[in-house]
Amino acid sequence: MNKEELEKQISLLQERVEANKVMNQGYESDLLKAKKDLEDLNKPELTPLMMDNIYEAIERAVEQYDFSDTDNFDIEYGIEYDGKVHCESHEINNTTDLVEAISEKVCNLFKEADCPEDDNS
To answer: Between the CA atoms of 43, 49, 55 and 58, what dihedral angle is there, to the nearest 10 degrees?
Structure first.
């Protein structure tokens, strides 16, 4: 092949690649939608009112959590050049209590169902 034939072949291949990209974009969006639908297939449906109730339950649990309890945090202090003490970093280390408080509030919104497949475990 000479240079002109190779350039023509390259341009044809580029056109095909571009055409396939457009076609593949449709397939990719369909694939993403199908994956999302499969993921959501067995999820229970919630009404907007229930979503609001869950949000409010979480909000109440977080508001009632004692963030002032310093035992729940790891705090590193530092000293500035003028002698002032400041907090270098702080990290919550006891998330279990917060998770339990949120779970309790959310679970109180539901009744536990009897599930026969759980008995087979």
So the answer is: -90
pTM listed for this prediction: 0.48
Question: Residue 93 corresponds to which amino acid?
Answer: N
CA separation for the pair 27, 74 (Å, rounded): 49
Does an H or E element contain 57, and which? helix 48-64
Assess contact for 76 and 90: CB atoms under 8 A: yes
Tell me the two tokens of residue 56. Answer: 């409010």
Distance, in Å, from the CA atom of 32 to the CA atom of 21, rounded to the nearest integer, reads: 16
Question: Quick one: pLDDT band at residue 119, thresholds 50, 70, 90?
Answer: low
Report the length, in residues, of the chain.
121
- Per-residue pLDDT, averaged over 20-31, amounts to 80
Single-letter code of the amino acid located at 102? I
d(CA 79, CA 86): 6
- And the tokens for 22? 């457009």
Residues of the chain above pLDDT 70, percent = 92
